[in-house]
Amino acid sequence: MNISLPAIDISIVLIYLGAILYLGFRPPRQSSPTAADYLLGGRRLTVVPFVATLVATWYGGILGVGEFTYLNGVVNLVVFGLPYYFFALIYALFLAGRIRRGEALTIPERFGRHFGPRSARFSALLVFLLTTPAPYLLMLGVLARLLTGMPLWLGVLLGTIFSTAYLWRGGFQSVVRTDLLQFILMFAGFGALLMLLHWQLPLSELWEQLPAGHRSLRGPDSMSGQVILVWFFIASWTFVDPGFYQRCAAARDGATARRGILISIGIWFVFDLLTTAAGLYAVVFLPDLAQSLAGGVAAFPLLGAAVLPTGLRGLFFAALLAVIMSTVDSFTFIGATTLGRDLQRSGPLTATVERRRIRWGIVTSGTLGFLLALAVPSVVELWYLLGTILVPGLLVPILLTFGRSRPLSDNAALSIGLAGVLVAALWQVGYQAGVLSAPDGGYPLGLPPMLPGLMVTAVLGVYHLRGGPGAEIK
Q1: Cα-based distances in Å from 456 to 139, 151, 310, 393, 461
Q2: H or E element that contains 205
Q3: What pLDDT is recorded for position 104?
Q4: 355 and 424 share a domain?
Q5: CA angle, corner 164, sides to 158 and 168, nearest 5?
Q6: C-alpha distances in angstroms, 331 versus 34, 251, 381?
Q7: CB of 446 within 8 A of CB of 227?
Q8: What is the CATH number of the domain that holds 208?
Q9: Cβ contacts of residue 220 below 8 Å, gap of 6+?
Q10: Can you list the residues of the chain whose pLDDT is less than 70?
Q11: 418: closest CA among 457, 473, 472, 386?
């Protein structure tokens, strides 16, 4: 299924891509930036760019949001909204300021300073796997194929180039500059879509036409309280999100980081309302989409193509691209930093050597993301599965770095992280093999792999802190 755009709309999309390249390739503030300049923009990020880059980066899976809302309705706000606001609030109040006041520029570096080199390298491996841009590159390829009919591989390749090429020169400053434009576009595009949809069908009338299940806070399948609670704990992923950490470390001061997250929560809520409403309109305007070849994942593109006039249609598709690309460049840069700096760290490096390593990490991270996006068509599901397995290896140890108790040894921190990953992985393997499964065919006790992994790491964390083997100060 292809979407045909007139020349005006295509021109708007091309202007957006040109603007991204212009902003991304603008020279950095200093001709010879230090490591902090290249990695974190000199740690001078003020509130407005902080909010813009954090908000834009958090929404890379926009096509998935459309699909989930189309299939499940307003429960989208319950499982993908409220829990994340809650954990972002905790992050703002208790962690953001400490991250900025600390000297560690990345999560693995924080592990290294608090625990030791082995747990730092282990955390670096997990961070790299968590931040692969492959899912978002695949989304760009799907969107490019819908708009132009080009082969998927070409769409993924072009998406990789347009989203990462400028990182070579500008580093984090390029990410922030492009995110400012992408932040504006995401609200302009969805705002225009909702205004026109409301003019055609007021929200009150839309609500009456929706299936009853789509109006329920538990969804069409009546999610149990246990399932909702599981989704709530999955949102604790926020604590180990490298993008959150990177932006807090880049802020001008702790107050800026804290205030920026608090403002972002309000803006996320507004955008969630926009995207949820758009998904609900798709249910009414595109009633047969779930049975079509495109499926719910194309809800937003097909809705925009169906109802928007020339000009606004181009703006909306530029907005979709902006939401996805803002995450691609951020994840690629974090992956490059992890490859070029954290995994290879063998002692103090000059700014030039560190920058050169990260630049080649950009090439490697982008290339691996491109190949993975083509090799695994269901890469979004793979990414989510890997996340639920890998997050237990990071969550408890990183929270321990903010405590006031004595630090764990390198061995203790590594054992906690490994245990979390192994338990989550075995839980998943046992479920797929049929050894561990509930009577209804779901996960045992209704728990996805992430939760038993976190339970084990929590127990081990308490054990080591109370004086178990390996709890000694290194």
Answers
A1: 35, 45, 55, 10, 8
A2: helix 203-209
A3: 93
A4: no
A5: 135
A6: 21, 18, 17
A7: yes
A8: 1.20.1730.10
A9: 71, 72, 73, 211, 213, 214
A10: 1, 29-33, 290-295, 345-349, 377-380, 404-406, 468-474
A11: 457
